[in-house]
Amino acid sequence: MPSTPTSVLAGVITAVSTAALTLSAQPAATAAAQERPAARCAAPSDVLDLSDWKLTLPTGEDEDPTEITQPELTGFSASPWFRVSGNCDAVRFRAAVNGVTTGGSSYPRAELREMTEGGEDEAEWSTTEGTHTLVVDEAFTALPEERPYLVGAQVHGGDDDVTVFRLEGSSLYVTNGDDRHHHLVTDDYELGTRFEAKFVAEDGEIDVYYNGRLETTISHEGDTNYFKAGAYTQANCGNSDPCSDDNYGEVRISDIKVTHS
Fold first, then answer.
1. Whole domain around residue 10: which residue ranges?
2. Per residue in 76-107, pLDDT tens?
3. How far apart are the first and last CA of the chain?
4. What DSSP state is assigned to residue 10?
5. Statement to judge: residues 15 and 99 lie in one domain
6. Count of domains observed in the chain
């Protein structure tokens, strides 16, 4: 058998050595890439479109809670009341029982209020003209002690709420005015469970949906309506102990969308 030239053997050895070095380097490079931190969101406005909203927080002076409007709301966060979740897929809204309340309520909130014109004006619309829709992808994540009641989304009209999604322990209700137990959606809700809440207002009625299923229809005619979403804790220091920041209601919102037509 003829011998292989020395030059050919040298070339083969060089090629094999180069390939081995390349293969051995790939896992190290991959590991290094995995160790580099992923890009993180800095504020709730990086997760949700907050262009046409303002925020009320459970902080500030008595009956004069902090309000954040546009353009300040873009890029704003206030831990632990209004912040992004750890993996940047949702925004957490928290209101403790000892929080500051508005003059018209005895309960604290970390809640968005619908606005118009890029956040310049407060929204007001009629249930008898056009179609007005709110869709919220959310989850209740914490309830206050003793009085475990929390509102996560609502249609508000004038000086009072019209209909809301209200959790009481494990029972999720749709309210109708002062009837807080108007319609039972489920009596087996588990904290942290995501669901889609949807209101559609038109022709003097509000259809209320849960995960795409029509749950109830509320009759309501009015022209000062607007949407709200977040954590509206239905407890305070007078009925829920301990009276501290550690006793709170919390809602996580992954998406929110309003349309008017």
1. 1-36
2. 999 999 999 989 999 999 999 999 999 889 99
3. 88
4. H
5. no
6. 2
